[in-house]
């Protein structure tokens, strides 16, 4: 059974450490955890693969980051899913979430895009919203700051103190979801 795990974000070094790219940070962490290297795929994505579990019960996991911008990520991810014959019901999308406090994690399947352009692009390209989401809380900006500017900023000095633990929990959540299913994952991580 193959799972496609997608980290949303924008390409390029100037965006790599921004709040909008927290999903891609988790992908990088999973690749490092399993000692696999992301490489370019013809679908305009960077991918790496590994096995989760042992023996015949092991899951094939394909990690992916689109090389296009957030609002155009649906096309490359759809092409990648088609290449590996992965249905939307076996796709986990990691993305930043303004409406969840910093470092909180929520999991769900399907639902709206809540104004998130990456989710909007994916749903449009797949023609369905029936994929899993690991929603990584970045909180809302203080005062009058535009949310669009806020997501493109790096994490604050205070947030950076716990970012590694946050990213590690995001990676744990993905693997728990694959192995144990949504209900148990929600019980464990949706705190």
UniProtKB/TrEMBL annotation:
It is found in: Cytoplasm. It comes from the Bacteria. The keyword Cytoplasm applies. One of its GO terms (cellular component) is cytoplasm. TRNA binds at residues 15, 69, 71, 117. It catalyses: an N-acyl-L-alpha-aminoacyl-tRNA + H2O = an N-acyl-L-amino acid + a tRNA + H(+). It is an enzyme of class 3 (hydrolase). Its EC number is 3.1.1.29. GO terms for biological process: protein quality control for misfolded or incompletely synthesized proteins; rescue of stalled ribosome. One of its GO terms (molecular function) is tRNA binding. InterPro entries: Pept_tRNA_hydro, Pept_tRNA_hydro_CS, Pept_tRNA_hydro_sf. The active site is at 20 (proton acceptor). Monomer. This is Peptidyl-tRNA hydrolase.
């Amino acid at each position: 059974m193959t799972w496609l795990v997608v980290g949303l974000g924008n390409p390029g070094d100037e965006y790599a450490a921004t709040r909008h790219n927290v999903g891609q940070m988790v992908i990088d962490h999973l690749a490092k955890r399993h000692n696999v290297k992301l490489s370019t795929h013809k679908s305009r994505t960077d991918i790496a693969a590994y096995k989760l579990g042992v023996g015949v019960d092991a899951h094939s996991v394909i990690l992916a980051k689109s090389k296009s911008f957030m609002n155009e990520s649906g096309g490359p991810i759809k092409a990648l899913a088609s290449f590996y014959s992965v249905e939307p019901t076996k796709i986990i999308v990691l993305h930043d979430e303004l409406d969840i406090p910093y470092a909180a994690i929520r999991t769900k399947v399907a639902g709206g895009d809540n104004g998130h352009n990456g989710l909007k692009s994916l749903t449009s390209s797949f023609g369905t919203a029936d994929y899993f989401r690991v929603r990584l809380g970045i909180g809302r900006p203080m005062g009058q700051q535009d949310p669009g500017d806020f997501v493109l900023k790096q994490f604050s000095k205070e947030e950076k103190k716990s970012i590694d633990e946050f990213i590690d929990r995001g990676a744990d959540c993905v693997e728990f979801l694959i192995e144990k299913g949504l209900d148990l994952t929600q019980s464990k991580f949706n705190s």
